[in-house]
Design a protein that fits this description.
alpha+beta; 4 helices; 4 strands; Alpha-Beta Plaits; 4-stranded antiparallel sheet
């Protein structure tokens, strides 16, 4: 009888340890459950985010080139929903938000085509300002997913 009681206590401790271990394992996995891979959102609206260094003295050349080069090209792209341009006077930085119907449509645009339009943009700016280099440094590029 004493042996059975000792065995029962060991079994209870084992079960308690097993339960604690299972809880601990599942607790550490919770952040991973909430952080779903971005590929799951291929068909949902996405916002392209670009930040550029735009000095005050060349801001008008930037706006003009955006209007003449990027705006018409973007308007012709499947999935393009619109864009917004912002300029921070203190930082002399521009923020460009481009709305796309889906990440899949946005990413289906060949990089060679994007690079060609970027070169036209830079040529436009260099000619307007009579400079040899594009004065607008890309600071950041990323994407934002619309939250439900």
């Amino acid at each position: 009888m004493r042996f059975n009681l000792h065995l029962k206590k060991k079994f209870q401790r084992f079960c308690l340890l097993l339960i604690c271990l299972v809880v601990l394992i599942f607790q550490s996995d919770i952040p991973n459950l909430k952080a779903l891979p971005m590929n799951n959102y291929q068909s949902e609206m996405v916002i392209e985010e670009l930040r550029l260094k735009v000095p005050a003295d060349v801001k008008s050349a930037w706006l003009n080139a955006e209007k003449e080069i990027w705006e018409p090209w973007l308007s012709s792209q499947d999935g393009f929903l619109g864009r917004q341009l912002f300029w921070d006077k203190e930082k002399e930085e521009a923020l460009i938000l481009v709305n796309w119907k889906s990440k899949k449509l946005w990413k289906s645009i060949p990089m060679s085509e994007v690079n060609l339009i970027q070169q036209k943009f830079e040529d436009n700016v260099k000619a307007a300002l009579n400079v040899g280099e594009n004065p607008f440094e890309l600071i950041y590029e990323g994407e934002l997913d619309k939250q439900r």
